[in-house]
Specification:
29% helix, 2 domains, 14 helices, alpha/beta
Length: 459
């Protein structure tokens, strides 16, 4: 049994309060987050729609890792579970398994409504998570705005839920004064900043093709969000998706705070084994790869030629275009208390080799002088080495990884449907509207990554 350090146990978003100076100790930071609560609402009709169920369950899974005072769902109509996620047979069972409770919230608790129509505010923060076609986002509850209707692409509800939980955290933490009183969203078919996600997107196709084989590199924050997103896709025969799952780490107590498929029962288990077990419950076919990913690694013929990368180290990223993949989507997240909401997505091959893109390691924020760290040192709770190790850990939030996962997997889906592939997407969840996108100059028209048809009953 592994003996975990303080750095292995600290909640990665609670760490934000230490690094920003909002809390003077770990106990104060944990008490601050214990006061954060969230309410989720869903109507009778929405509760019987698989896409609205997907948005609700994504919101529960993300929010209970952020709002440590509890996530309550009310009302919750009696409905069978219609999403393909393997969390039981009823919607109520899935909510409970994912860490939510079915109860009325306390007065003033921030509210996220899943879908629905214009309504009066039930609390100072009350937004609706809405979606249509390949688009997802949020609007304030009283707003009449709604996206132009279109057949829902399965990742749009996940995107809407992630953006809603992000907005709710911005509100309770006081980081953005207009949180909850603005519209925020984007299109996964056309993520350019000039795209009106509420408008008519007549170019959006109905999703008909899904990947048949993928290689997932890294199974922490981003890798588990990739798996959640894949789990939402409407495979007619889930076993037709062949996954290679690569990681070398075990699940630690802090993993749960950012990683959507981890919980306390999985501590000390290899990430590969735990995630393969979940993927197989979903019906997917898996192979585990427990080798360090670097330039010495080689993909073999017959193995998946398309990779989704969620590594957080430069050595692995620099090797992404050297090991034999035909197409790679890499998502990187900010690490510090000021930039942890940042998402930067790359596809490869690209105009620059990976060794140039990640040539210079980005320095972490220097936070050892914050009161919380100095207090740990002064009290003897940690020595200088322990403080440095703890301070060097990344700040992370699960809603950032979930947003990044929808964007990353959409690159693969657009490739399959003849859409635009992007060499770079850069955004910050504080101000999604100012994102940057750069279409690739690579010609992928002859690439056949392997595909299967969707379940026509669900599309």
């Amino acid at each position: 049994m592994t003996a975990f350090t303080t750095a292995d146990k600290l909640h990665r978003l609670v760490k934000h309060a230490l690094d920003s100076g909002a809390a003077a100790s770990i106990a104060d930071a944990e008490a601050l987050f214990a006061g954060y609560r969230l309410a989720l609402r869903i109507s009778e009709d929405a509760a019987r729609d698989r896409h609205h169920q997907a948005a609700l369950l994504t919101a529960v899974a993300l929010a209970r890792r952020v709002f440590l005072g509890g996530v309550r769902v009310a009302p919750l109509p009696d409905a069978p579970l219609l999403t393909p996620l393997p969390f039981g047979t009823t919607l109520a069972e899935a909510v409970t398994v994912l860490g939510g409770s079915i109860a009325e919230p306390e007065a003033g608790t921030p509210v996220i409504e899943i879908g629905g129509t214009t309504s009066v505010r039930r609390a100072p923060f009350h937004v609706r998570a809405i979606f249509a076609g390949w688009r997802g986002g949020i609007v304030p509850a009283p707003f009449e705005a709604a996206p132009v209707p279109a057949p829902v692409m399965a990742l749009a509800p996940m995107l809407a839920a992630a953006l809603a939980v992000n907005e709710a955290f911005l509100y309770v933490s006081g980081h953005v004064g207009v949180a909850g009183r603005r519209t925020v969203g984007l299109s996964l078919w056309n993520p350019a900043s000039t795209c009106d996600w509420l408008g008519d997107m007549g170019t959006e196709p109905i999703m008909s093709l899904l990947p048949a084989q993928l290689w997932l590199i890294g199974l922490g924050h981003l890798g588990q969000a990739f798996l959640w997103a894949l789990g939402l896709l409407p495979f007619a025969r889930p076993q037709d998706l062949n996954l290679v799952l690569q990681d070398i780490d075990i699940i630690t107590p802090s993993t749960e705070s950012t990683s959507i498929l981890s919980d306390a029962t999985l501590i000390n288990i290899k990430k590969t084994r735990a995630m393969a077990a979940w993927a197989e419950r979903r019906g997917f076919s898996t192979v585990v790869q427990e080798r360090l990913f670097d330039a010495s690694f080689r993909r073999q013929d017959g193995e998946p030629a398309v990779a989704l990368c969620g590594l957080d180290n430069g050595v692995g990223r620099q090797a992404l275009d050297q090991v034999g993949f035909d197409f790679v989507v890499e998502a990187g997240l900010g690490r510090g208390h000021q930039d942890f909401r940042a998402v930067r997505l790359h596809t490869m091959p690209a105009s620059r080799p990976a060794s140039q893109i990640w040539r210079d390691a980005q320095a972490d924020d220097q936070v050892e002088d914050r009161p919380a760290y100095q207090g740990l040192l002064a009290s003897g709770a940690l020595d200088r080495c322990g403080v440095t190790l703890l301070a060097g850990k990344a700040v992370g939030a699960p809603f950032v990884g979930a947003t990044a996962a929808t964007l990353a997997l959409s690159e693969v889906l657009r490739l399959l449907h003849g859409g635009t592939v992007h060499e770079l997407i850069d955004l910050d969840l504080k101000a999604v509207e100012y994102r940057c996108t750069v279409p690739t100059l690579q010609n992928f028209s002859t690439l056949n990554p392997g595909y299967v048809m969707t379940d026509e009953r669900h599309e």
